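Incident log entry.

Two folding requests arrived from the same account within the same minute. Monitoring flagged them as a possible duplicate submission, but the sequences differ. Recording both here for audit purposes.

Request one:
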Amino acid sequence: MAILVTGAAGFIGSHVAARLLARGDQVVGVDNLNDYYTPALKHARLAQFKDNTAFSFHQIDIADYDALLTVAKNARIKSIVHLAAQAGVRYSLENPFAYGRSNLDGHLSVLEVAKTLSVNHLVYASSSSIYGANEQIPFAEDHRTDHPVSLYGATKKANEVMSQSYARLYGLAQTGLRFFTVYGPWGRPDMAYWIFTEKMLKGEPIDIFNRGNMGRDFTYIDDIVEGVIAAHDLPTDRENDFHRVFNLGNDRPEKLMTLIDLLEKELGVKARKNLVGMQKGDVERTWADISRARNELGYKPKITLAQGIARFIAWRRGLAKPFE
């Protein structure tokens, strides 16, 4: 029996797959390898597993229920870590239908596969974007999440509601994870820390939204992976509580300008700053209350932003050429 990892060629998905393989699990990865950002990066992530016989990969769209069910059934999967999604706030303004297919149809497809095969546990990715216009700080799981400011956030809210319904209807054990600004090696080129790095190395100006008055709970990828694994391994014989949600953040919100200062230090380059207004669909700050994850998952993020950025830049310097 194996663990199905959707979005296995993605940033978080590839790291989770690597961690599961390292501890001896069989992993079946699926991903559609779309061109939202360069597929070369996705292929490079998958190349890390090419000699591992415990890993198999299938290029399919998770919204294709029949294809996904066939792969999962043939592999006799015991659990699912569902990390595939159309990410990005800004892109949701340009291509909203991509979010409907991947995040709504895709999530429903995964739910149906999990129900049909009676898997032990479905762990899925939610997002800090679900908190939307919430002004209570730090964000806690019991805060209201019905005022999204982006379509992406709205689809993640929908995922949680869909999962709750399947938990109640079918007793399907599920855990939703609200990720907070995940960064690190093998990350996504559409994220600020990566965009800033490439532009600074080229001597190009960087756009700083809301004139720098932004804050994020930056969370290093290794810490996130440990949280995902802990959630996956959480006992699922929970009477009358088949659906749980956890924040996975760092509980150390940092100013955007602090991120830029750290990049300048590690790159030895002074950023050319272009201060601009707030972009539509964005929020001024995020901060995760992780007390629930600490208490129930034993989740203990360890990596500071300074340490994480140093590791990312070291990885970036080791590339023969940048992924753009």
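Request two (distinct sequence, not a duplicate):
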Amino acid sequence: MNVTHHRHRIPKAALAAALSALLIAGTGCSSKADGDGAGDSADGVKGGPGVTEKSIRLGALTDLTGPYATLGKSIVQAQQMWADETNAQGGICDRKIEIVVKDHGYDVQKAVTAYADISPDVVALPQVIGSPVVAALLDDIERDEVLTFPQAWAASLLGKDPVQVLGTTYDIDMIAAVDYLTRAKGLKKGDTIGHVYFEGDYGANALEGSKWAAQRAGLKVAGQEIKATDTDLSAQVSALRKAGVKAVLISAGPAQTASLVGVAASRGLRVPVVSSAPGYAPQLMKTPAAAALEAMLNVVSAAPAVSSDLPGVKRMVAAYQKKYPGSPVDSGVLSGYNAAQLLGADLKKACEKGSLAREDVVKAHRSQKNADTGLGTPQDFTDVSRPASVSTYVLKPDGKAVGGLVGVEDAHSAPGVEEYLSSNG
């Protein structure tokens, strides 16, 4: 996969300007609580915080103004679409769904304040963006028994009853990425791969996976830690070139992926690059790095591409495009809608058992062994210490496809994953 026609350098200013567009924020909506709805209701269903006779209130702690603003907007809109669809069909447990949205801008302190603000009045959190944010809230979430779906996939978030990482964790994704490089891109024993990663849980967990898989395959890893604010990766590319890397893994945000691939292509480091899902956004196909991304990048993801022909995905994409014309349909849409559907199934199950109290919603969730929304692979929520799924898809950028990605390989479990999980268990 060589980029033969991109000998010119991509001007830094042009790339920076294009990437700054990725950080343009959406807007949130908020509704104030009207009491905690504790106690039993007229229909005999036990209530609790966030539950009234007429409504079930959910909370979203999102990023609409920080590095994941585009992702945050997609997830918020997708989950609101699910709530509107659900309410049009009579709601859940004869109650209407309301989602209270708070923007933390990927700022941990703001997120802690926002959690304190909404937590007394919600039954569950179908969206909390950011590993550092979730890590800061873990103790409160456990204490309050609020079922929480992080939009973060660090293995450090496993093992907590009310916290559910959906799909795979970052380490599993990187084991799959190394497997793909050795199978499909000709990497062999003795080769060096670069790994550019964010500081904190996201990067650290991804690096655990890449190092484990590299050792198993006889490869070396040249690591480059970066901050979320680093958007010019020229220095990292120089270091990786010097290290003679045959491929690069990246565990960061879309702006970093575009800079890495764009700079590498312009400097003749034309090697395969593999990112995890949070490192890609379809808006990148409108930047000067687009051609290089199409030629060099693959994305490993627990979810299929939104251009997939899975009937559930096609239905969701059509509904989203109708409801939010002009909004990009990206992986955040799929991820947000999937999380909302899974939470809906948990609430229905809890209602059937006669209680929408928080701890009973958590119990209903943990009893689901083969949860399948039709948006990818089934998930098992019964073992708190394991990722809900270990299957990953391999995708690649395509400027013409809805969501800017197309499938390369269907979901499968990479060889070694079970061995890794039992060695870490």
